[in-house]
Amino acid sequence: MKINDTIQLCCDFLGEKDLKSLVGTTSGDDVQNAKLDAMLTCLNLAYEEIVTEYLPILFTETVSANSGIINFSALSKPISGIIAVKDEGGKDLAYSQSADHIEVNASQVQITYQIVPEKFEFGDEAKVIFPERLLAYGTAREYLFMQGLSQEALLYEKRFKDALISFVRKKSLLTLPKRQWKN
Question: For the whole model, what pTM was predicted?
């Protein structure tokens, strides 16, 4: 998904046709560029909500524990939550967590954790599994709240949440019992 396309879709939702053609450029005036920068900020807020609360991005890496301590700053990605800590054989390990590290009784561990998403810029490509429309709804919601347009924002809040719940809901085959005619 291209970030510029998502913001252009958001412009369509908001009726900002003059901004749509300026997405990804710097040819607008100061007010237009400020609006586009605000939309990009809102897109990042909506994306962060999606991937921290509903569709987490997980990362696994093997790290060495220095005297049983693994500092979060030593991990290769910014962390927002620990999912699992395992030994070299794949067995779950008990650990204790503090604000900036974990303590574990092992020298080498495999840690799976949820990462903090990177911020997008104009022109970036997002590798996501959810539809562009979902992120555009969230962007429009954040933008309208930023502008103090609460009633309009609530409309996009509903669209965003409905689309998000529909996307994350487990889709399973529904089997109905056979119908029978009774006299």
Answer: 0.79
